[in-house]
UniProtKB/TrEMBL annotation:
The keyword GTP-binding does not apply. Keywords: Membrane, Transmembrane, Transmembrane helix. This is Membrane protein. It comes from the Bacteria. The chain crosses the membrane at residues 12-36, 77-103, 115-134, 154-173. InterPro entries: DUF2165_transmembrane (IPR018681). It holds the Pfam family DUF2165.
């Protein structure tokens, strides 16, 4: 491994930096396409959100049904909030992807890592807290055969989590671990 003086581009870790850029860009593309689909085919996932919140395809356990939200206004507001959250996450992740590419050329990807972390955490909050915890457990989405998004939520949460781990590996900063831990000369 060859490590140059401060301010110069480091040759070690560029493969992992490239991987971080590509993986961040892949999640950005995915989330952007989800937003596009939700906007251009608004009704499909609107029905999904309505059914999950209404709990109308669950086991109808009286001990749980008090949680159901049947107001179309509230259901639609929740759906629009989800789309807005996804849109912001997509913009943050696209920005992070650009920062990875630019930062790799300049030898500093710290800002890319911070922005990517924020975007990936937004995805994880949406699918972990929003779909798995609130939708899956609070609104018992797991009980529905037709409107069960638990598997998709786990997939999205897992992918974002893996990318988050990759971007925080020591080599993803464009320098090897030894150089990152060594005191400045």
């Amino acid at each position: 491994m060859r490590v140059k003086e401060r301010g110069e581009i480091l040759t070690a870790g560029t493969g992992l930096t490239s991987a971080a850029a590509v993986l961040t860009g892949t999640v950005a593309l995915y989330v952007a396409l989800v937003v596009l689909g939700n906007i251009t085919d608004f009704g499909t996932n609107q029905q999904y959100v309505r059914h999950v919140l209404a709990m109308d395809t669950t086991f109808h356990d009286p001990d749980l049904m008090w949680r159901a939200i049947t107001s179309h206004t509230v259901q639609d507001a929740a759906y629009v909030a989800i789309i807005a959250w996804e849109l912001v996450a997509a913009v943050v992740l696209v920005t992070a992807t650009v920062l990875w590419v630019v930062g790799a050329r300049r030898g500093s990807v710290d800002r890319a890592r911070r922005v990517a972390t924020a975007g990936l955490l937004m995805v994880m909050v949406l699918f972990g807290a929003g779909f798995l915890a609130i939708g899956g457990e609070w609104f018992s989405m797991w009980q529905s055969k037709q409107w069960n998004g638990v598997e998709a939520a786990v997939r999205n949460f897992t992918v974002a989590g893996i990318v988050l781990l990759v971007i925080h590996l020591p080599g993803a900063a464009g320098r090897p671990r030894e150089a990152a831990e060594a005191p400045p000369a």
